[in-house]
UniProtKB/TrEMBL annotation:
This is Restriction endonuclease MspI. The keyword Hydrolase applies. One of its GO terms (biological process) is DNA restriction-modification system. It comes from Ruminiclostridium cellulolyticum (strain ATCC 35319 / DSM 5812 / JCM 6584 / H10) (Clostridium cellulolyticum). Keywords: Endonuclease, Hydrolase, Nuclease. The lineage of its organism: Bacteria, Bacillati, Bacillota, Clostridia, Eubacteriales. The keyword Nuclease applies. GO terms for molecular function: DNA binding; type II site-specific deoxyribonuclease activity. It comes from the Bacteria. It holds the Pfam family Endonuc-MspI. InterPro entries: Restrct_endonuc-II-like, Restrct_endonuc_II_MspI.
Length: 399
């Protein structure tokens, strides 16, 4: 076997291992209720089992619904043979719901373009395919988690998915395979496969590092973030320290894992907000905020304190930047007792995006200032059963 074929074989083997590791992590670490079988084959009655896929995933909580997976590094080399297998499998095995071709997230930009183009063909109206889609390993992971968690109660589901998102970001930042790909992609990508390199690269580029130029010596990420002085959870979900050949960077990350358009982003005493805005308690804006906390809604504020409503309408929008810094990034909070609790980056995991703080503040003001209340990019209310004690702020996601 010549060297090129050896590299291709090793590359394909690593791609398959990558899918296996992802599936077993979901089952054994996250506790997703699925059954996994490596190697699937079937044939027509009294014929050889000639139609094969690499993995079968069975959803125990959904009448044993089955998904089949074919892993590959090359769309061009594998896709049409897989189409033929998929066509026959669908004729023989009615239990199979979805059939996916899956590629590593670390494939070259040329292969990724082929992947996207074929996905568009599959989902279009002018091409007949027996595949469900072409996905990266990470995209498949998200689909499996979403499917398996559909029947979980909403609150518990949010906790499961939120914790998984934090752990996933920590793991991908600490992944030595991603480090190797970053430092020397051209050579490393021939044999090293990653399900998260695309995300890793976007995060590092967002903190002004350049692939192949800024050599990564060490990355240490953690979601063990100290609590605020009131024992509450800080805005930071993950903190990462990156040592390169020329510098050391520390960035604190907030992870937004939601499919909703608006989400609660802050709950707390209005006195903390007054402190963050550097207002005196006697300031008319402070008094108006105190009145709002007591009544809990704009409608009641208009009815009971019409002058306070007018003050908020006229003045609160002047502090939009400071409000975003406080509600979203945790800046200027009197409860912060460690700089690790103040956020530098935001990651959205549903419609994936990474923002640094300054760019996001500018974007958020431009995009949402006309969609909130009191001229701010936020919706103002109170937590359930805590009217008069706290305010609750709802913000906009990128969905």
């Amino acid at each position: 076997m010549n060297k090129d074929n050896q590299i291709k074989n090793e590359s394909g083997k690593q791609a398959k291992i990558l899918v296996s590791e992802m599936l077993n992590n979901l089952k054994n670490e996250l506790g997703i209720n699925i059954e996994i079988k490596e190697g699937y084959s079937i044939g027509y009655p009294n014929q050889e089992k000639q139609f094969k896929m690499d993995f079968l995933v069975q959803f125990t909580d959904f009448d044993n619904e089955q998904w089949l997976i074919k892993s590959t590094n090359s769309i061009r080399e594998r896709i049409y043979g897989t189409e033929f297998f998929a066509q026959n499998i669908r004729l023989i095995d009615e239990k199979v719901k979805n059939i996916y071709v899956v590629v590593p997230d670390s494939i070259s930009s040329a292969e990724m373009k082929k992947k996207r183009n074929y996905s568009v063909k599959i989902n279009g109206t002018t091409y007949t395919s027996f595949l469900t889609d072409v996905l990266t390993v990470n995209e498949l992971r998200q689909k499996i988690v979403e499917k398996a968690s559909q029947n979980i109660a909403q609150g518990l589901r949010a906790n499961v998915l939120g914790n998984d998102a934090e752990t996933s970001i920590v793991n991908l930042l600490n992944d030595l395979k991603n480090k190797a790909l970053w430092n020397d992609y051209q050579n490393a990508q021939q044999t090293i496969k990653s399900s998260t390199y695309k995300i890793y690269k976007e995060i590092l580029e967002k903190i002004d590092l350049k692939e192949g130029f800024d050599k990564i010596l060490e990355v240490t990420a953690t979601n063990d973030i100290p609590l605020l002085s009131n024992r509450g959870k800080p805005k930071t979900d993950v903190s990462v320290t990156i040592k390169t050949n020329t510098k050391e960077l520390i960035r604190n990350i907030s992870i937004k894992n939601t499919r909703e358009k608006t989400v609660t982003i802050h709950e707390g005493s209005v006195s903390d907000l007054i402190s963050a805005l550097k207002l005196s308690e006697s300031d008319p804006l402070s008094q108006a905020l105190i009145h709002f906390e007591k009544v809990g809604s704009k409608k009641k504020l208009i009815a009971e304190h019409p002058n306070s409503d007018k003050i908020l309408e006229e003045n609160l929008k002047l502090y939009n930047r400071e409000l975003i810094e406080f509600f979203i990034f945790g800046l200027h909070s009197p409860l912060v007792n460690d700089k690790i609790q103040m956020v530098d980056l935001i990651i959205f995991t549903n419609k994936f995006a990474v923002w640094n703080r300054d760019d996001y503040i500018k974007h958020y003001i431009e995009e949402y200032s006309g969609k909130g209340q009191f001229g701010t990019p936020f919706k103002w209310t109170y937590p359930s059963k805590k009217r008069g004690q706290k305010i609750q702020i709802k913000g906009f996601s990128n969905n």
